[in-house]
Amino acid sequence: MTEDSTTLGTDRAVHSDAFVFFGATGDLAAKQIYPALAGLIRDDDWRLPIIGIARHGDLDALRARARESLLAHGIDDADLIDRLQRQLRFIRGSDDDPETFRRLRDELGDARHPLHYLAIPPALFVDVIDLLGSSHCADGARVIVEKPFGRDLADAGRLNTSLHTVFTEDRIFRIDHYLAKEAVMNLLYFRFANRFLDPIWNANHVASVQITMAEAFDVADRGAFYDAAGAIRDVIQNHILQTVSILAMEAPSGHTAEAVRNEQFKVLDSIRPLDAQDVVRGQYEGYRDVPGVAEDSDVETFAALRLWVDTWRWGRVPFYIRAGKCLPVTATEVLVGFKHPPFDVFDEGPGCEDNYLRFRLSPGMSISLGARAKKSGEAMVGEPVELFAHHESPEDIPPYQRLIHDATEGDQILFAREDTVEAAWRIVDPVLDHRVPVLPYERGSWGPAKARDFLPEGDCWHDPKAEPVST
Questions:
Q1: Where in the chain is the domain with CATH 3.30.360.10?
Q2: Homologous superfamily of 179-397+416-452 in CATH?
Q3: Is the pTM of this model over 0.85?
């Protein structure tokens, strides 16, 4: 892989000098990109020309769209809105029309290092990439590619091949906004900033690792999109497996982004491809009544997985994953459960919640240590307690603002590399054909009953609470 000059704290790469985004009138632009651009203008005095490309509209309509987006996100600073509108330019054209790209090349003017953002459906990626290359708009440029990056391993491979005909790997930024969340970045920091953790962070002391990404809401008006994806494609192949790679990776060998991503790849490359016996799929009752969902849909809205990381550090330690909609709470947690003491001095018997380290990633951010402490009284009898540390900063940078900023500066650390994307698809690819039956579950439950029986006797799922609990 190409070694860049980016370090974990500094960057000496060439800065982009123009921002181009395809799909300028789409939902992603309204929900994420315009607020992110406004934040960059406000916080970093961002002065890049912003060129929007869409099939319909004009510059006035684009400026109005940007204003509506900012107001909808509570950004009512008139000066900031005006600055964003004045930096906007517009090209009306088609993603597969060479003339559109000739006009883009003219509009770029003296810009030599544009950043192209493909905020468009994945089916259009290849045409846009090819035309960026043939029009010379890709010369010296970088490209941001939105998730999902392919539908399976073969599709991701084809997309990577297409990208590499025009862009070198160090100029490709595969976006996964989850990696830019403050809590996920803190997980990486906590692992390697605290020496006390490493001696117990291995199979000698860890019994299991659990990651739960629970959503209390349903698919709402996204039925057509969700029915073409499902929980495994939507969040597990990307968000959760990237989190696994951070939890299980070795310490980076240097300060570069590539040093971190090398270790993340090694983890994903060491995980066994899933087998049917390692997966439970579920679908909440009423999902098939959602507009856009097939009447006989067997797409999963819930999945529970068991992963095996075949490395010296993690051999025989199960990683349990849960993700789903219409669950009891909306929360994402990582829980690392430690083994019981080798001898039960107090003859109390093991409990499934005795010793653990819990990372609450959302909502809020916290770290908790589960332990046992003696109850008051003469008897040597204990009870579970939790030592709780809550961390919240009002200055958190929104993920899309952080990612666009980093891509502008060539900082790859929060973006997925070609080999990690394909390694993640290789893990889930064997169970994407729906050969694992989908089981119904009630809204507000923790998924199908079979998922509760997924863990061995003596172990249990650690269900996130509605809010972090402090003791």
A1: 179-397+416-452
A2: Dihydrodipicolinate Reductase; domain 2 (3.30.360.10)
A3: yes
What are the pLDDT digits (tens) for 241-279? 999 999 999 999 988 989 999 999 999 999 999 999 999
Rounded to the nearest 5 degrees, what angle is found at the Cα of 306, between the Cα atoms of 301 and 311?
A: 140
pLDDT at 458: 74
End-to-end CA distance of the chain: 47
- How far apart are the C-alpha atoms of 57 and 223, rounded to whole Å? 28
Angle at 140 between CA 139 and CA 143, to 5 degrees: 90
Q: CATH: 2.30.30.240, 3.40.50.720, 3.40.190.10, 3.40.220.10. Which one for 18-140?
A: 3.40.50.720
As given in the structure block, the two tokens for residue 255 are 């300060």
Q: Helix 125-134 and helix 98-108: axis angle, to 10°? A: 60
Helix or strand holding residue 78 (H, E) = helix 78-87
417 Rama sector, left if φ>0, alpha if ψ -120 to 50, beta otherwise:
beta
Q: What is the pLDDT of residues 103-136, one digit of tens each?
A: 999 999 999 999 999 998 888 899 999 999 999 9
Q: How far apart are CA 61 and CA 56, in angstroms?
A: 9
> By three-state DSSP, how is residue 1 classified?
coil
Distance CA 46, CA 37 (A): 8
Residue 50 tokens, joined? 């912003």
> Is 239 annotated as catalytic?
yes
Q: What confidence score (pLDDT) does residue 364 get?
A: 85
**pLDDT exceeds cutoff 60 at 54:** yes
- Bridge partner residues of 338 (DSSP): 206
Active-site pick, 239, 255, 340, 462: 239
